[in-house]
Amino acid sequence: MIVQLPPDFIERLAPELAKAGRREIGGVLVGEHLAEATFRIADFSVQRSGGSVSCFVRKPAKHRRFLKRFFEQTGRDFERFNYLGEWHSHPCFEAVPSSTDLSQMQAIVEDETNAAHFALLLIVRMGSSQHVEINALAFTPFCLPTPVRVQITDRPVDDPAVAHGGRRSGTAVVTKVTDWFRRTRASWGTA
Fold first, then answer.
1. What would the pLDDT profile of 65-79 be if each residue is shown by its tens digit?
2. Any idea which architecture 2-188 has in CATH?
């Protein structure tokens, strides 16, 4: 799977991580289905409450208005534009999912009332040299998580997910995509 991130994703995320300090924050990811296994993150919500030094609990009610606005902007074209998954920060730990993160994401895709075919998880942190580190995994029902290749790509000029000519592109903070999955998959015996 490939996930494209526009540079403004990093530009918006970095100050949020700095403001949060040692407290975890997170939110919802929405995006566009571009091809068979290629998606573009169009936007994300930010929940600044509900986190501690070692835990983040997303509160669905805090993201309803964000989702409603996104679906209205994209003409309710759910096959093309939809919920992609979750993100949260690990300011005091590596940008790798905890066992709790893994089980909660698996529960999302295996929840019969949810009916998500997959869900993306981004774990992010501000690295020591002030670069955003990102680890991306995809979850599908009854399978191990799979790595996601992250590409920094400018938004299309006619991006329907951006209202009123808003955020489009810019200079990206250098992003390190971790290789945690490769190391961990070897320990699972499925390398």
1. 999 999 999 999 999
2. 3-Layer(aba) Sandwich (3.40)
